[in-house]
Each structure stands twice: as C-alpha cells, then as structure tokens.
Amino acid sequence: MKLLVTGGAGFIGANFVRYVRQHHPAVRMIVLDKLTYAGNRANLAGVLSDQVQLVVGDICDATLVEQLMAQVDACVHFAAESHNDNALRDPQPFLESNVIGTYTLLEAARRYDVRFHHVSTDEVYGDLPLATSDTAARKFTPESRYLPSSPYSATKAASDMLVHGWTRSFGVRATLSNCSNNYGPYQHIEKFIPRTITNILAGRRPKLYGTGRNVRDWINTADHSAAIWAILTRGRIGETYLIGANQELDNLTVMQQILEAMGQPHDAFDLVADRPGHDRRYAIDASKLTHELGWHPQMTDFRAGLRQTIQWYQSHEAWWAPQKAAVEAEYAEHQQ
Ligand code: NAD
Ligand code: DAU
C-alpha cells in the first residue's frame, strides 16, 4: 500500500507516520506538508527514506495534489490550521487550508478513485454543559448535531460536510473520524500541555484561561494513530467514527498534575483572561469504534502519559526552545 499523508510533519500526522513505520513497515508514504509554523521537518527525523518521502507543498495546490494523488492507494488527511487562539486572531488561513485544501484533496481523490480518510475534531459538535449529576453522562456521538463555536471548529465542520457531500454525490470512498484532545511528543508549544510544560522548563509561569473549569477529554496521540489505522483499513465507507479515551479532566486538574509531576507548588500558575467563546466541555462516546473495529485505547493512565510527555520535552529542548520566546511574545501581545 502507498499512502499520501497530508500534514505529516505536524504533531498528530508525524506521530501517525511513525506509527505506520513501526507497525506496518511495508507501507510506503508520501508526506505532503507546507511546513507552516506548525510543521517541522525534524518531526520526521529518522523516518525519511526511500519508503517515506516528504514533499513540501500546499494542499490547496491542485496541480501538485493531483500529481501525488495519482501515485497512491489511499490518503490520510491531517493537514490543517489547528489552533483556536490563532483562528480568533486571523481566521483567513483556516478557511484556505481547512476548507479549500480539503476540497482540493477530495477533487483529486475523486478523479483517481483514491480511498480517503479525513481526520477531524470533536469540536465540530460545539460543547457540552459542565458535568452535573444530570449531565455527566452526556457525550458526543456520531449522531450529535454539528454546532461549532469557533472559527477553527467552523472550518473543520465545513471540511467534514465536504467529505459527506463528495462521498454521497461522487462516490468518493471516504471515512471520517472526530477525535478529542491529543497529547504526546512533537506537539507544538502553543497548545496547553506543551505550553505549560515548556513554560515551567523555561522558568515562566504557566497560564490558565478563565476559571480553569473547562473540561477536555484527553487521548494519547499513539492511540489516535491506532484508531485511524483501524478505520482506514477496516472502517465502513461513508461512516463517521468518534475517537476518545474516556479521560475527561478540567484544565485546573491538568495544570496541577503537570506542576506536581515537575516538582512545583500547586499554585505556581497565573489565571489569565478567558478565550472568547471558550467551549466548556468535550466528551467522546467511542463505542462505535470499539464495537465495530475492536479498537481500545492502550494509554489509559493519564498521569503516566503526562510523565512521558514531560520527559520528552525535557530531553528535546533543542526542538522547542528556539520557538519559545516568539510563541510567548505572540500570546503576550494578545493578553493570554
Ligand atoms: P498541527 O498544527 O500540529 O499540524 C498541522 C500540519 O499541517 C503542519 O505540519 C502544517 O505545516 C500542515 N499544514 C497546514 N496547512 C497546510 C497546507 N495548506 N498544506 C499543507 N500542509 C499544511 O496540527 P495537529 O494538532 O497535528 O492536527 C492534525 C489534524 O488533526 C488537524 O486536521 C486537526 O484538526 C485534527 N485534530 C487535532 C486534534 C488535537 O488535539 N491536536 C484533535 C482532533 C483532531
Ligand atoms: O478537541 C480537539 C481539539 O483540541 C483539536 O481540534 C484542536 O486542534 C486542538 O488544538 C485542541 O483544541 P483546544 O482548544 O481544546 O486545545 P488547546 O491546547 O488550545 O487548549 C486546551 C484547553 O486549555 C482549552 O480549554 C484552553 C486551555 N488553555 C490553553 C492554553 C494554550 C489554557 O488554560 N492555557 C493555555 O495556555
């Protein structure tokens, strides 16, 4: 099998490429990545070879996309602008990459009859109320209504709709997955967990938005990779699968677990202004994936996964340190 992996030099894409290399070494891959601020050739260090090739380019470039699609059996589409705070400052690149980019790939997949897997997010469903005895059992399911709250999630919702439309009307052999918050190695330091870890490592106080009561449902990115592989190879065409590991935690708890694991006092952080439109709670019901495809998360001890992630950032300072000052200056400019 030969795969086109878009966004394979980003966080989840690079972890997926590494997962496939390790578990399915006969698979050949072309990574198509624009190397935006979030993409990094170093994320594929030790993986690039005759078998895994990196093409630096834009998923909106129809000529290039067609050329690559003509060479592969399947496409796993990760490439996107992915950070909510950036979308609040400037949504335009999100429309380009997430909407036009997905459209461009779907047109090429249609032309060359390439199996297509679209990687999406639980944020397309908006948010859930914070858990009380009445609402704790509520989770997103594949039947949940699309109700995105942010510019980022609105563009991801639009891209999901394009996938549905191209599957139904043009017969594109597509599947779709909506996953909860990932953590693990190679995640850009703009995101909550790596930002917090690297702030502590760099002697800066980490920042907690609003009250810290917002809840995210954390999954280790290795489990996300395994789920995507299961859907790509055994999922039913036209279906949506939700991916999550049942690890709901509020942000204050995650902050305090990181501080504790790094030997810091529990209150060694700053509360800062809340994110506009901040989604309250995400929670995933992944039972369709577990029942149909037998997938189960392996990394179910969040504290252990967090310790591994902290160790990764401790031992990869050269990977993140050059960007630290600029990322924090950007946050400071927008008072977060
Ligand atoms: P990321 O920002 O770390 O990586 C995105 C990658 O896409 C980068 O390498 C970037 O260079 C590339 N890219 C962006 N625009 C491009 C373009 N126009 N052409 C080619 N390449 C382009 O993102 P991530 O966190 O790895 O997310 C990957 C995918 O997974 C996204 O589609 C995101 O919506 C989805 N997702 C993310 C999470 C999460 O928790 N991070 C959860 C669920 C779904
Ligand atoms: O749910 C899946 C989504 O998870 C993906 O689709 C997105 O691509 C991914 O970025 C992530 O979105 P979030 O907005 O949930 O992730 P982020 O890491 O930006 O923030 C996680 C939570 O932590 C959120 O409630 C905001 C809060 N936060 C974030 C930062 C950067 C803080 O409290 N402090 C911070 O410094």
TrEMBL record:
Pfam families: GDP_Man_Dehyd (PF16363). This is dTDP-glucose 4,6-dehydratase. Its cofactor is NAD(+). Keywords: Lyase, NAD. Residues 4-308 form the NAD(P)-binding domain. InterPro entries: dTDP_Gluc_deHydtase, NAD(P)-bd_dom, NAD(P)-bd_dom_sf. The keyword Lyase applies. GO terms for molecular function: dTDP-glucose 4,6-dehydratase activity. It comes from the Bacteria. Belongs to the NAD(P)-dependent epimerase/dehydratase family. dTDP-glucose dehydratase subfamily. It comes from Lacticaseibacillus suilingensis. It is an enzyme of class 4 (lyase). Its EC number is 4.2.1.46. Gene3D superfamilies: NAD(P)-binding Rossmann-like Domain (3.40.50.720), UDP-galactose 4-epimerase, domain 1 (3.90.25.10). The keyword NAD applies. It catalyses: dTDP-alpha-D-glucose = dTDP-4-dehydro-6-deoxy-alpha-D-glucose + H2O. SUPFAM superfamilies: NAD(P)-binding Rossmann-fold domains.
